[in-house]
Design goal:
By secondary structure, the protein is α/β, with parallel strands linked by helices. The protein has helices at residues 29-43, 85-96, 139-145, 157-165, 194-198, 223-236, 257-263, 276-281, 285-294, 309-316, 359-372, 378-384, 389-405; strands at 16-22, 47-54, 61-65, 68-73, 104-109, 126-130, 150-154, 171-172, 204-209, 240-245, 271-273, 297-300, 320-324, 338-340, 342-347, 352-357.
Length: 406
């Protein structure tokens, strides 16, 4: 690496860093954050491995980054690779270590309640960047984060507050968004204007960007409340349309949202859905920015978020957000957005509380957003800048990494 340019991005560290999460560049929220993280870890000279729990199967591979190769370990027979992941980390460290004091970290970016391998006792330093999407702290999450070899990293102030109540020390590092590319823009990668593509120039566009994954009768993304609220709102405002950036049919792991909208009486011509193939393999960044820009409001209330990247992405494009007034979301929207109240609901699997957003409150927030018209929010754009990827890296990640690897 040359010596010219910004010294802040050239500072070199020494050690090994294994990232257990979704695979690099997967079209998921975790995959996006993994890519941001791995690129910068490599930029600063660390030996890096990606230990996959989704995205690579069958054989070990190599990720080619512009800063050098990254070892890529596949998901194994266990759905979260708990039969192999800690062993893959130890294998990788043995391959790159240059002595017995070689520093290394096993890093987790996923729900920690699934971590159950006895081999974790053999790893000295585990850093867990932890989503806490409940109103109360799930017992299995607490148990993991209290381990002596685990450094808890909260991705939202809500997580920090819950851990403090339990006497658990943590550091706060938010997720990040590349606000230099996710910004107000209306041209799609195929050259079309997104407003013509949506046929939305004379429509008020309500957007939802949320994974359609359910557990039986429970859907953490609260599609039932959100879609019912839209249906009520749309009856009074027939010029409103809904854009769903998700697997609208559920794909066997979620709900059939189009069936639900039909039952709610929402006209099919008032609903637009992302191309299923595009959604499966991931939208281009240019297109994603255009979709957010075409929205007049992002509807993002749920039972609880560990972070909620779409709320930041939407605001980076000037689009206001309707979110939940609890868990992570309450800290991640600007003053020009709306937070709705909810009712407690018990999650028997995690033994903790969520909340369900109140439908009348969502309807009222949609009405207030409608009164804003087809305008953008400079305040939302300014708010989102604090989560720019390089800003988060410099202000949050580098101070932690220096303590371990310098």
């Amino acid at each position: 690496m040359g010596k010219s340019g910004n010294p802040a991005v050239q500072e070199q560290l020494k050690g090994a860093f294994s990232v257990w999460s979704n695979s690099y560049d997967m079209p998921t929220g975790y995959g996006q954050q993994v890519k941001y993280l791995i690129n910068r870890l490599k930029r600063h000279g660390l030996d890096v491995a990606n230990i996959s729990n989704f995205g690579l199967e069958g054989a070990r591979s190599v990720i080619d980054t512009k800063h050098g190769p990254v070892a890529h370990f596949p998901r194994s027979f266990h759905p979260y690779s708990q039969d192999t992941a800690p062993l893959d980390h130890m294998t990788f460290v043995n391959e790159v270590a240059d002595g017995p004091d070689f520093k290394n970290v096993y890093f987790t970016l996923y729900d920690v309640w699934v971590l159950n391998s006895p081999h974790y006792d053999m790893i000295k330093d585990i850093w867990s960047w932890t989503p806490i999407d409940h109103v109360t702290l799930p017992p299995k999450v607490k148990e993991w984060l209290m381990r002596k070899n685990v450094k808890p990293i909260a991705m939202a102030p809500h997580g920090t507050r819950l851990l403090e109540k339990e006497g658990i020390d943590s550091v706060y590092v938010p997720h990040s968004v590349d606000t230099k590319t996710i910004k107000e823009s209306y041209q799609l990668s195929n050259g079309l204007d997104v407003r013509d593509y949506f046929k939305s120039r004379d429509k008020f566009v309500v957007g939802m960007v949320a994974a359609n994954k359910a557990t039986g009768l429970v859907h953490r993304k609260a599609f039932n409340e959100n879609l019912m609220a839209f249906a009520i709102f749309q009856q009074a405002h027939p010029d409103a349309m809904l854009y769903l950036h998700t697997d609208a049919k559920g794909g066997g792991i979620g709900w059939d949202l189009l069936e639900m909208l039909q039952a709610l009486g929402v006209p099919s011509e008032s609903v637009s859905v992302v191309n299923p193939i595009e959604y499966r393999y991931g939208s281009k960044v240019k297109d994603l920015a255009a979709y957010y820009s075409a929205m007049d409001v992002l509807l993002a209330t749920s039972m609880g978020e560990g972070f909620g990247v779409p709320t930041i992405e939407a605001q980076a494009c000037g689009t206001r957000v309707i979110g939940s007034g609890w868990a992570a979301t309450e800290d991640f929207v600007s003053d020009e957005c709306w937070l709705v109240p909810g009712n407690p609901v018990w999650d028997a699997q995690q033994k903790a509380w969520w909340q369900t957003p109140q439908v009348p409150a969502i309807v009222e927030a949609l009405k207030q957003a409608y009164e804003k018209g087809k305008t953008k929010s400079p305040q939302a754009v300014e708010f989102a800048q604090q989560f720019h990827t390089e800003t988060v890296w410099k202000e949050y990640w580098m101070p932690i990494l220096r303590k371990q690897f310098v």
